[in-house]
Design goal:
The longest helix is centred in the first third of the chain and has 21 residues, at about 5-25. Helices cover about 60% and strands about 15% of the residues. It is α+β, with helices and mostly antiparallel strands. It has a three-stranded antiparallel beta sheet with strand order 1-3-2. It has one domain (about 30-110): Winged helix-like DNA-binding domain superfamily/Winged helix DNA-binding domain (Arc Repressor Mutant, subunit A, Orthogonal Bundle), CATH 1.10.10. Pfam families: HxlR.
């Protein structure tokens, strides 16, 4: 069996590493669900929580923090009583929507 050219192997390894990194960062149990909920408009923490009733507040807070850190979401704090925090998709987050749509379509094919 012939050995593939060295460049192809490096490209394959690089692509594989990029894929693994993306999967690790985006495909938690809740992250894409949060992106889906925020696709239409910005929402406050409590609104997101109501739209995803089976996620705990602690996990939602953790996932929102991670998505903000990754640049998928933008966070805006309103300094009022009570304090309100709004989340919206960033430009990076908008780029994730085709993946969300593809996974929804794929899931419906296997149900």
């Amino acid at each position: 069996m012939a050995t593939p050219p060295q460049e192809t192997t490096r490209e394959t390894l690089l692509t594989s590493a990029q894929l693994q990194q993306s999967v690790h960062r985006l495909l938690s149990k809740w992250r894409l669900s949060v992106v889906q909920v925020l696709r239409a408009s910005p929402l406050y923490f409590g609104d997101i929580r109501r739209r995803l009733p089976t996620i705990s507040e602690m996990i939602l807070a953790k996932e929102l923090k991670t998505l903000v850190r990754l640049g998928v979401l933008e966070r805006k704090v309103y300094r009022q009583a009570p304090r309100r925090v709004e989340y919206r998709l960033s430009q990076k987050g908008q780029q994730v929507l085709p993946l969300v749509d593809a996974l929804i379509g794929l899931g419906s094919q296997f149900s």
